[in-house]
Inverse folding.
């Protein structure tokens, strides 16, 4: 009988295959064909050779990275083991989303040797001497000890990796990992964008990129009861959906495969996929390409990062629309910044997956910023982390209402004639409407509007 795998297996399989196989193929096709060089899928260029190519530094860095990943995954004679974190960003956490489960992926010579998934709810009961949960989890989530499910409470992925690995071994985990991969639920939408809508024989409705997340959530939480499915079998829909996805993947055209690669590359930029490798040379390249989910500690100019943590608001992040309005006036004696963050809770009513939105929000600012006013926040605290200052506050947004929080603060005087801005996005949060207004030292105003889908830097 043919072995059956879960949806999580196939998501991971195609993630690895797309990045490390199709990625290599496409880069060769796009960048080297014009050089009339004959290559094969197993070819490998040295870093020295790549550096001689007429490409931008970013493209060269990406080629070097892919070359190293090919050696790591495809040509390696040694088995490699990876921890895969599944983050549900409908229930947002600073690192991407609630970690409902994790997988252990083993690969050798480009093939999946094994893949096992584990429910964090079961695993967390094995953790001994777990640390206390961060503020304010104990108050609002009513938990006292940290488990894997909540261990991504930092916006910095390498920091989360350290915490998660520590808890894994405290829970008597035995594997030694070569790396960690974190995936948000948005990756499923990426797959369905390429495969098209899927209708399953034994389940109602159609799963497509627009409704799949909420439809699956309903099926495993509520729908199975109405259909007379046993509780222990309620997640069988994931297996059947996974099998259909993999069948369609086998039949993708070349054009569709390239589309899939493009989408997954976008997921990497958006931090819906975050990578961490123990190999220092690979990890360095991952950071250079912006795939590491790392908070920029070295940045010394103006800085902004907004980080939300859903505190018992169920899966309400599915309905939350965010926008940012940031204005900096450098013409004042002390440069002044006014930040407005609007949360629009678009849900119509409270139900099994929706509640009033409650977030513990941290707003990261330059280390020498001085907050002089804040509005529509409560339980405020100040702290320092990653060479930044942050304001932490609890924010509640009732269903079908909007709330705008406002923070006014002064920036260092040195910014007046030497200004630049870096905005880093939170993993799991996309399409944030953003407006940036800068008034320079001479009073000239410049405005830029965009959707925040990746880390963004002000261009003068």
């Amino acid at each position: 009988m043919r072995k059956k795998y879960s949806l999580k297996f196939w998501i991971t399989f195609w993630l690895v295959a797309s990045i490390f196989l199709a990625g290599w193929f496409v880069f060769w096709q796009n960048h080297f064909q014009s050089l009339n060089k004959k290559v094969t899928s197993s070819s490998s260029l040295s870093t020295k050779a790549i550096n001689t190519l007429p490409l931008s530094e970013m493209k060269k860095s990406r080629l070097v990275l892919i070359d190293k990943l090919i050696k790591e995954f495809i040509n390696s004679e040694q088995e490699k083991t990876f921890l895969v974190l599944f983050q549900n960003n409908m229930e947002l956490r600073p690192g991407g989303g609630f970690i409902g489960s994790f997988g252990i992926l083993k690969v050798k010579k480009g093939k999946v040797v094994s893949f096992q998934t584990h429910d964090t709810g079961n695993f967390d009961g094995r953790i001994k001497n777990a640390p206390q949960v961060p503020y304010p989890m104990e108050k609002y989530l009513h938990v006292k000890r940290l488990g894997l499910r909540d261990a991504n409470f930092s916006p910095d992925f390498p920091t989360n990796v350290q915490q998660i690995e520590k808890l894994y071994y405290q829970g008597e985990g035995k594997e030694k990992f070569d790396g960690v991969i974190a995936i948000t639920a948005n990756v499923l939408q990426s797959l369905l964008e390429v495969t098209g809508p899927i209708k399953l024989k034994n389940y109602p409705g159609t799963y497509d990129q627009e409704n799949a997340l909420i439809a699956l959530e309903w099926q495993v939480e509520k729908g199975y009861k109405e259909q007379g499915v046993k509780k222990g079998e309620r997640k069988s829909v994931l297996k059947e959906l996974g099998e259909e996805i993999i069948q369609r993947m086998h039949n993708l055209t070349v054009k569709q495969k390239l589309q899939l690669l493009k989408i997954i590359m976008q997921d990497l930029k958006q931090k819906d996929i975050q990578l961490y490798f123990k190999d220092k040379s690979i990890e360095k390249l991952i950071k250079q390409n912006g795939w590491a989910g790392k908070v920029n500690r070295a940045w010394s100019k103006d800085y902004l990062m907004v980080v939300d943590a859903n505190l018992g608001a169920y899966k309400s992040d599915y309905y939350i629309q965010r926008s940012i309005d940031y204005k900096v006036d450098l013409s004042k004696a002390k440069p002044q910044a006014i930040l407005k963050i609007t949360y629009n809770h678009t849900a119509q009513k409270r139900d099994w997956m929706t509640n009033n939105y409650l977030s513990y929000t941290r707003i990261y600012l330059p280390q020498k910023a001085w907050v002089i006013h804040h509005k529509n926040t409560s339980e405020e605290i100040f702290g320092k982390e990653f060479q930044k200052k942050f304001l932490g506050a609890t924010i509640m947004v009732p269903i079908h209402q909007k709330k705008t929080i406002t923070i006014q603060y002064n920036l260092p005087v040195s910014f007046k004639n030497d200004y630049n801005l870096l905005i880093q996005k939170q993993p799991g949060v996309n399409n944030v409407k953003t407006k940036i207004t800068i008034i320079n030292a001479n009073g000239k105003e410049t405005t830029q509007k965009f959707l925040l889908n990746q880390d963004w830097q002000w261009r003068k």
Confidence is low (pLDDT under 50) at residues 1-14, 17-45. The domain at 7-288 is CATH 3.40.630 (Aminopeptidase). The chain has eleven helices and 19 strands. Residues 62 and 289 are 7 Å apart (CA to CA).
